[in-house]
Amino acid sequence: MSTLTVIDHPLVKHKLTILRDVATPFPTFRRVLRETTWLLAYETTRHLRVESGTVETPLEEMTAHSLPNPAPCLISILRAGNGLVDGLMDVMPEAAVGHLGLVRNPKTLLPEEYYCKLPSEIEKRQVILADPMLATGGSTIAAIDRLREKGVRNLVFLSLLAAPEGVEALQSAHPDVPIFTGALDRELNEKGYILPGLGDAGDRIYGTE
Ligand code: URA
Predict the structure, then answer these.
(1) Burial letters 67-89, b for 16+ CB under 10 A, else e
(2) Which residue positions in the chain have pLDDT lower than 70?
(3) Where is 105: in which H helix or E strand?
């Protein structure tokens, strides 16, 4: 069973309250989401490998550590995933970034891919897959299926909020993928929205309806 880590931190809690508030305008939402992602990134990147090398300080040479080559990779599940990837890129500018677009087929209700652009040598990289809302888990599972097909082995998933239904679905489909989230909410409603949640993450980030 994959691990679920709820990143329990006073600043994450405080910022999540701002993000949940229906009165928060989208420019504030965007900024606070970015700040929250910096805090979530600290835990989510704890497993990353570093390589030893040397660095010359102004005083002497020392052994030091850097991210490996090829660098880790961030994958956004479009479009709301970009809201997390923006913050992850701030703290990991060396990371390569891929994008996966998935849309639910209204007949089958299954996620179908409409866009996929992934970095080279993805099978050698440590991958962080990001989507702010782990709701039913359908698009996350489809995204991981795709990444597995491409040979990705080392993978974690980051969301801002998660519903128990999505966590369960993801854990049973991909028991080896660790899940990181800012909060575990109560449940999904009949339309697949997380309760209490924050509404549609994409709309809240981009000011759309
Ligand atoms: N996607 C969202 O943006 N919000 C939800 O509550 C569920 C899925």
Answers:
(1) beebbbbbbbbbbbbbbbbbbbb
(2) none
(3) none
* Nearest in space to 96 (alpha carbons), one of 66, 77, 115, 117: 117
Options 3.30.390.50, 3.40.50.2020, 3.40.50.720, 1.10.10.10; CATH for 4-47+71-206 is 3.40.50.2020
Is 86 annotated as ligand-binding?
no
pLDDT, tens digit, 9 for 90 and up, residues 174-189? 999 999 999 999 999 9
104 an active-site residue? yes
pLDDT at 38: 98
From the candidates 104, 181, 186, 204, give the one annotated as an active-site residue: 104
Question: Ligand 1, residues 19, 188, 198: which to mutate, most atoms within 8 A of Cβ?
Answer: 198
CA distance 19 to 170: 24
Both tokens of 55, joined, read: 């660095």
Take atom 4 of ligand 1 and give the residue whose Cα is closest: 200
pTM over 0.90: yes
What pLDDT does residue 87 have? 98
Which residue in 42, 127, 48 sits closest to 81, CA to CA?
Answer: 127
| pLDDT for the residue numbered 12 | 98
Q: Which of 181, 200, 204, 208 is catalytic?
A: 200
Question: pLDDT per residue over 70-111, tens digit each?
Answer: 999 999 999 999 999 999 999 999 999 999 999 888 778 788
d(CA 201, CA 126): 26
